[in-house]
Amino acid sequence: MKAVVLAAGYATRLRPLTDTWAKELLPVGGRPIVDWILDAIAAVAAVDEVHLVTNHRKVDAFTEWAASRGVHVHDDGTTTNDDRLGAIGDLRFVVDSAPLDDDLLVIAGDNLFEFSLADYVSFWRAQGVASAVAVRDVGSRELATQYGIVSLDSNSRIVDFVEKPAEPPSTLAATATYLYHRSHVHLLHAYLSDGNSPDQPGRFVEWLCRREPVFGWQFDGAWYDIGDAEQLLAADNRLRAERGLGLRTAYSPN
Fold it and tell me: Domains in the chain, start-ordered, CATH in brackets?
């Protein structure tokens, strides 16, 4: 199994901070966001390589960061938010350029969580030839409008997936942590060739679950989708508290 970390976005909601920092390298709890993700990946014995895709503006920072971590960094060549490949486009870029012909663990580089990836992988393997997404009840239909919302059958198979619905059918949200069977990875080409959106990684799951088995693995506990300053500060303070560091009223990378 290979792990792919998606870190090629431009984090426009966090500007001007992200004019000089790669969002995924911003420290939370005293460490870069992506270091916490690497810790979680390291608990999955089956993962034998970690790949990270970023854009041309951020590649030097990630190359320096990766030098002591054994992570393969891929530059997608884009330089602005307007010419970005999108999360699904970037995933295909890595699959093609690496190249990868394996089961994939795919995680957004701004997605922090406290569940065990090893437990998640064990659940997924029990489903046979299938893919999976980690899902969490966000407890609010207002919040649910911001996420991909899933419906599961009694066996936890996804029977419906709606990206950012105006009227959510439930509050069970997909997080940006995916497991793709190698036979499903090859369907990225068909998805994109059909003219589907290359952005928002959940869009591929939405398309895939109508064609192949995709399961939802439910977890509880802390989860941060770090998209804005409020979420960044909340994640920083939670991890600072766990490490005995002082809490902050405003975020600072220093």
Answer: 2-242 (3.90.550.10)
Question: What pLDDT score was predicted for residue 107?
Answer: 97
Each residue's pLDDT tens digit, 11-64: 888 888 888 899 999 999 999 999 999 999 999 999 999 999 999 999 999 999
Q: What is the DSSP string of the chain?
A: -EEEEEE----GGGTTHHHHS-GGGSEETTEEHHHHHHHHHHT-TT--EEEEEE-TTTHHHHHHHHTTTTPEEEE----STTS---HHHHHHHHHHHTT--S-EEEEETTEEE-S-HHHHHHHHHTTSS-EEEEEEE-S-HHHHTTSEEEEE-TTSBEEEEEES-SS-S-SEEEEEEEEE-HHHHTHHHHHHHTT--SSSTHHHHHHHTTTS-EEEEE--S-EEE--SHHHHHHHHHHHHHHTTPPP-SS----
Give this prediction's pTM: 0.94
Residue of 36 and 225 predicted with greater confidence: 36
